[in-house]
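queue> pop job 88
queue> type: inverse folding (structure -> sequence)
queue> payload:
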């Protein structure tokens, strides 16, 4: 399993699993399959237009198809959180190497260099294949220049294997009620840190993340509770408080 270490805005290093060549190819094939379907529909409509001698409709269909084909990847990645429909099905997405959401400029750079990576027509993607197969972070040329890569969106550890994801008793009493003020991004980051610890046993992530959360919510820590227990309790409390507040 190949991973990439990305430093988040909270100065915590998180290992993300990099999308492999096979997943990228399948996502591309799915997207091209959609274009083939659109092409068939367009041909049928153009045949109907030719029968009715509507040259304007034929021109409109040709231009519309060309625009969709040309801007599909750029528009989808901007408005679908770094994914096209193919990437979404394959559960992979574009992410900036600085750990944040790619900017418009980064998406634009990836899109501009598609013509080099994949060729003028549907493209056999020789340049992209070589770059993705040989580069450290499985980046095509457009990714290298835009400082982006593709990661898997599926959690590295199945949810049932995570220690804090348990059915809490009805009489459960949250220890840190302040956690209700955490946002989803912070909670997801805690989840990633705990998942990384369960996989690697590296305590540095735990120490760093616990320190950041303590600074944010300034909780009263029970005597004898270590940083790992603190983060697990934060997750339990957050799950409980958000679940009960939704009732």
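queue> result:
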């Amino acid at each position: 399993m190949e991973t990439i270490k990305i430093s988040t805005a909270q100065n915590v290093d998180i290992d993300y699993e990099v999308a492999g060549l096979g997943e990228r190819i399948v996502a591309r094939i799915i997207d091209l399959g959609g274009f083939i379907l659109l092409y068939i529909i367009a041909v049928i409509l153009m045949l109907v237009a030719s029968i009715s001698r509507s040259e304007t409709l034929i021109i409109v269909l040709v231009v519309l198809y060309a625009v969709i084909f040309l801007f599909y990847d750029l528009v989808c990645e901007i408005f679908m959180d770094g994914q096209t429909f193919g990437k979404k099905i394959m559960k992979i997405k574009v992410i900036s190497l600085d750990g944040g959401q790619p900017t418009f400029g980064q998406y634009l750079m990836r899109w501009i260099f598609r013509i080099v990576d994949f060729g003028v027509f549907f493209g056999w993607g020789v340049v992209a294949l070589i770059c993705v197969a040989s580069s450290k972070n499985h980046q095509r040329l457009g990714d290298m220049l835009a400082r982006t890569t593709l990661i898997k969106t599926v959690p590295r550890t199945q949810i049932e294997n995570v220690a804090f994801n348990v059915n809490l008793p009805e009489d459960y009493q949250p220890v840190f009620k302040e956690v209700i003020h955490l946002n989803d991004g912070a909670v997801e980051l805690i989840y990633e840190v705990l998942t990384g610890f369960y996989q690697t046993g590296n305590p540095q992530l735990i120490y760093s993340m616990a320190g950041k959360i303590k600074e944010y919510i300034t909780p009263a820590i029970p005597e004898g509770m270590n940083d790992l227990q603190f983060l697990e309790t934060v997750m339990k409390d957050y799950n409980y408080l958000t679940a009960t507040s939704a009732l």
